[in-house]
Sequence to fold (226 residues):
Amino acid sequence: GLLTTVAFGATYWYYKPVVTNPTPITPYIPPPFVWEKIPKPVLKRFTVPINEDMSTGWSMTSTVIIGITGLLAKGFLHLSHYKVYNLDRFLNILYDPNRKKGIVTVSNHESVLDDPLLWGVLPIKTLFSIQNMRWTLGAADICFTSIFKSFFFALGQTIPTIRGAGIYQPGVDFAIQKLNKNGWIHVFPESKVTQQPDYEMIRFKWGIGRILMDSCEEEGVIVIPI
Fold:
């Protein structure tokens, strides 16, 4: 019995596994916000396939919200010093009757007011034309946390995006469908406000890659950096 115990111990000591710097197990952290928290009437607006038949009330309210917000942005810009380059070229693309491609505009995100103040440079006729105005991806855990904000941002053509839910989520699907219908999507690929020195941009989110890859597969999309 003693010899057996000694032999077993010696065998274990010789063959025991050596563990050096074990890989830590990263605990699963659920997204801070889930799609189902958004009010159901708003969710219907972002369900794929897209129902383009908006009610008259929704269309009029959306036009008023986007138009007035655009006018306020325009007024703010007139109190500031700014210069716009190539706006006429952008409008030519936006209003091109022969365009068969969706438009993706992309910019950095140095302020929470980048959108909508950025669009104060657009003509008034564009601001009051929801068919031609941009759709943008907005963090659902900020823009869709109450009934009022959910309806306000949905009417303002903001697509709810769940941070941490991956690239295959309803908001990304909706953006792709809008591009396939020759719509205009504006993205902040850094996905958060960032003020890096020397205008350095941080890593782009992967959802932007999926939007570009899966949109307008035959025609492609028009990407315009701002």
